[in-house]
Model the fold of this input.
Amino acid sequence: MHGFVSSSYSYNFNRPLTNTNCGVAPLTACVRIFDQDDNSFKLDNTELVFLKQADDKGDIGFRFDLTFGFSLPEGAQRLRSSPTSGANVRGLATGDDDFDLQQSYVTWNAPVGSGLKIDFGKFVTHVGAEVFDGYDGWNTNFSRTFVFGWGIPFTHTGIRASYDINEKWSVMFMIANNWEEAGTTDNNSEKSFGAQIGYLPFENVSILFNYMGGNQGTLGTDRGNDNWRNIFDTVIDIGITNQLALQLNADYGSEQNSGPGAGTATWWGVAGIVRYDFNKWFSLNVRSAWFRDQDGFRLGAVNNSLREFTITPEFRVLQNMIIRVEYRHDESNLSVFETQSGTGTRHQDTVAFNTLIHF
Done:
């Protein structure tokens, strides 16, 4: 059994009228995906993980992640698709959804070649560079990029098979339910498909090519099943030196028949993260990202370009305890961020203090 706890305090210098970092119209959903509250202390996430590895061929294992909190679990539960337009309407929580079964799957290491691992159940997505924070990995920054929040799915329910071809190449293929509703249910009669190709060209470089696609149309609407949604994703990790690391991420997404009478909607984004370890107890993480919602399909604002710059000093005060301080600057070409009077402005600045404990 393993565990993880994350708690935080965040503050928005815009002093938004609604006390959130979400933004205003023409946005139809909260622009910040987990760190949504202004001037607030929060228990972001508490996680208990029950795990049995399936390392050898023929082994059967499992993983069960139960999470409770007022940021990540609520955010994972807010994945909804509009029943009329199919557009993503992730937003502020409206119900008692502080618990989330983040992952729950069984693994069989089939005796094929070097071992074909087959997972069946619910699992986090393979798409994107950022992750759901947990005992076995967390992001270098406290907040998530717009690329993570609005460019990709979060979790899937289905079956996936992973295979290491050799020391340099690996592949994965997946069949799952639809993107939203946390992937636990399907909104039509078809399934989505995912794939990953991993490549290690050098000892200090890794490259992941990810894909997810499937029909997302809701039965009984004028769109039917005729709107295929795609996401293409690339993640590159480079260990420049023993102390300096670089991570690059690029996404391109599209959906056919994105609304009544509408054509194909597109969105794309890029992100870069630099991490420098000064010593055993202190690191500095710097991130920049850009997300383009060309047709307003993801956030509701047409021709919306979102940019952010984030700097996060990290202090490892104990072997299993981390303290982070974060400054983040958000910008848009539209006045989508909220001011103290409730009107829109093109920028917002936030700070956050975050504590992580893992075991």
Notes: Residues 72-77 form the longest helix (6 residues). The first strand starts at residue 2 and ends at 12. The radius of gyration is 20 Å.
